[in-house]
Amino acid sequence: MSRSRIALIGSGQIGGTLAHLSAIKELGEVVLFDVVEGVPQGKALDIAESSPVEGYGSKLVGANEYAAIEGADVVIVTAGVPRKPGMSRDDLLEINLKVMEQVGAGLRKYAPDAFVICVTNPLDAMVWALQTASGLPHEKVVGMAGVLDAARFRYFLSEEFDVSVKDVTALVLGGHGDTMVPLTRYSTIGGIPLPDLVKMRWITQKRLDEIVQRTRDGGAEIVGLLKTGSAFYAPAVSALAMAESYLKDQKRMLPCAAYLNGEYGVKGLYAGVPAVISAKGIDRVVELELTSAEKDQFKKSVDSVKGLVEACQKIAPNLG
Length: 320
Ligand code: APR
What we know:
Layout: E1 5-9, H1 13-24, E2 29-33, H2 39-54, E3 60-63, E4 74-77, H3 93-110, E5 115-118, H4 123-134, E6 141-143, H5 146-161, E7 168-169, E8 172-173, E9 181-182, E10 188-189, E11 192-193, H6 194-199, H7 205-216, H8 218-226, H9 233-247, E12 252-261, E13 267-278, E14 281-285, H10 292-315
Parallel strand pairs: 1-2, 1-4, 2-3, 4-5, 5-6
Antiparallel strand pairs: 7-10, 8-9, 10-11, 12-13, 13-14
Helix pairs in contact: 1-2, 1-9, 3-4, 4-10, 5-7
The chain binds adenosine-5-diphosphoribose.
């Protein structure tokens, strides 16, 4: 049994799914935290009661006090409100910004050495706010979006081509929103890049464009179906893949919302780029050569993240 501690800030749909998966995978002791009394305790107990059936030995606790996350190795933050139909991720900004300030203070005090994965939306602005509020090093605070966006793209492609998801790779850059940039040139079926498959007439450019658009709208599609909240199964596994890479020093190269300090011509902002996650956190950001069309799309996406961060700075000038 691993001696790691995984703290989940927010014990809602994603937090509960994360707790269940972390326990099944025996990643370590799981601490569920939430502001609502009883929910983290109830979910911790419910999942613990499933352990005799599944045969795992993970310890789970629920808490309403930040002291419970003390010494956490990984913290995954889903605290805040999710989208309802008709809302964009950006509509959540004001409420979730306040939540990030509280969570940041808790991290600073009780888990300053943790690797922190932010999931709360609007993602690229909230991960910026969380890092700023917590004061943790940039390489230890990262946002989960690209793994999920790429997973959606991969799933849609596997359906289209009627091939195993295992043989589909995809890369998505930019912010987690309508301006995200699914990179078809770096997405493959069995190693064959998508533009080549268009040339081979396996798919038309028009159909590929439709799949790219469905990927961009992937979150809204689920919100439209669920009506009372947003996606949680795929976001949870995506965040956990990043946590595992850190805990096990796997050095997986995953698209993450990482802090950019000049890479891609961006300084002082978080945006979705491929990065290697090791025991150090973000080990390195991978800088790709982009075509001028891709550069334009990436810039548009980064500009929209910049706008959100500026809105955060107006609401909370003390944040930096
Ligand atoms: N501190 C801790 N927890 C909080 C706080 C806070 N200040 N404010 C709200 N929460 C808790 C809520 O009580 C709730 O249990 O955060 C949890 C959020 O859970 P859900 O509403 O079920 O939302 P979920 O689907 O898990 O999504 C969480 O991730 O993908 C994003 O857009 C999504 O921002 C949303 C977040």
